Amino acid sequence: MIGSVAIVGAGPGDPGLVTEKGKALLERADVIVYDRLVHPLILEHTKEEAVRVYSGKIPRGHATRQSTIQAMLTRYARGGLFVVRLKGGDPGVFAHLGEEAEALRATGISYEVVPGLTAGLAGASYAGVPATYRSLSTSVAFVTGHARKEMPLTDVVLPRADTLIFYMGMHYLPFWLERLAREGWSTETPVVVVQWGTTAKQRTVSGTVMTIASEVEAERITNPALVIVGETARFQADLQWYEDLPLQGTSVLWAGEGVIDGEETGTERGETTRMLTRLGAHVFSYPGDVFTFNRDGIRVPLTAYQRVHFEDACSVGFFLQYWKDEGYDLRRLPAYVTGADAETEEALREFGLPPEEDGEPELTVGARVNNEGSYWQIVDRQPSKLKADVFSRLVADDWINMVLFTAPREVHALAGKLDEALAVWCADKTVVGVGVETRQLLQSLGVRVDRHADEANREALASLLSSSCAVVAAQ
Q: Which domain of life does the protein's organism represent (predicted)?
């Protein structure tokens, strides 16, 4: 059976701007072929067993040929797989939609197209520039800013519009500025350049047709960048909002958590992550293990046990969920429970099962392998390939600039996954630690701790990270 392809727009960079339809297709895709401008965190919507293929194109560097990408889409689909071709921005705006759709149609592969929020409009909005504004701008046009063999820039006609937005225009910026002046644009026309718009790397530079080239050179702005030309660019200084968020500019790796059937473990961590995201941060949990429920490991009905010992916190939630799924009366929960450590005991209390001190357990529940008759390996725990793929891409594209540790086990978890010493890997990043034991462990490993709190609730953690932004900006 022949598979199919969905050509999906990932949006301009901010992982939160991908469409719901796009996410739904990513969740069921067998193969994802994605571009450089797709933020790696968007890949977290893909399933664990999916194949993720990077086909990034670096300006004036190594590039995957367009013909190779098209052949790849066809090959995977012919193998009966559902393929998502994931593109930054909108597939139909300077993103080879036409070529890829034609190639699929020519080989008899069915496809669909899911639009995305184009970088031109989103980047302008995140920079504080409205593309149109009543009497100042009643039209906007997108222009390719770099050359193609089949059409040199001298053949590109500048559209007649009040606002022009150039894509990837850094290398030929002087050429375009000269063209604008020659074709009647005032040299005093406002210009805003937005680099890596809508992401933690976003930077903006403002000037005029006459001055913007020197401003860009002074700030070392490179592609990917948008050049916004027109009177509405005057609003940038007053209407900018994204770069004013307290955590904008921070890409946080929060060390060490697990994944349960595709969902992050820890309700508190999830809520905290969402709060930090609202404040402008991008947050990624790593490493992560996949926990799969082992229903067959229990030999007799759970109601037969009155004394149960839990080896780890994650097992508590699985145990209670299984109890409910089987329809057992909650009033018949084990009379005596114990936990192996403070974290497990806290999980028991959260579920209304205060741990006891005494008594030999009739059943021990945990995630490790154990063949004893009184032991139930309630989950199978395996390293997450998805987490590893995303982490690899974040590192390769230099996204991570802050590392957060909130418990000693997180330090051990991350250190165990790195190819180099933790201190070496963290050397160029801001390190934030919570807890006395966490700080002491990091220091014993030679890791410089830039910000620390003995304890921190959700709001205090946000404040701690906000105070760390100055360190990030200085690096």
A: Bacteria
